[in-house]
Amino acid sequence: MDVSFNRHQDTLKSLARPRARFTNFALHLLENSLDYAQQRQVEVSSTTEGVITTLQDKHYVVDLVLQTCECGHYQVNCIPY
Ligand SMILES: [Zn+2]
Fold it and tell me: What are the pLDDT digits (tens) for 30-76?
């Protein structure tokens, strides 16, 4: 829960900065990340692994060392959610 809250706060801070600092692609990723953060819960299993649970009660294992998530988003955009 703390990870999700901290990610949400970081995203809000980033979005509050002047938009000229971001490419449209990066801004789109940040906005999507905020949407996902509001729909998911993060449970940290260790310093390198966690489980993400969606509102539909689906679970995805995240490995921060391998930079993978079972949902596949992390491998695509390097943002674990
Ligand atoms: Zn994922």
Answer: 888 888 888 889 899 999 999 999 999 999 999 999 999 999 888 88
What residue has token string 């930079």?
Answer: 67
Backbone angles phi, psi at 56, to 5 degrees: -85, 10
Number of domains composing the chain: 1
Identify the domain containing residue 52 by its residue range: 2-77
- What are 53's two structure tokens? 């649970």
CA of 73 to the centre of ligand 1 (A): 5
Q: What is the pLDDT of residue 43?
A: 94
What are the residues whose beta carbon lies below 5 Å from ligand 1 (ion)?
60, 69, 71, 73
Task: Give the Cα separation of 33 and 57 in Å (integer).
Answer: 18
Q: Is residue 44 exposed (0-12), middle (13-18) or buried (19+ Cβ within 10 Å)?
A: middle
Do 68 and 62 form a contact (C-beta atoms < 8 A)?
yes
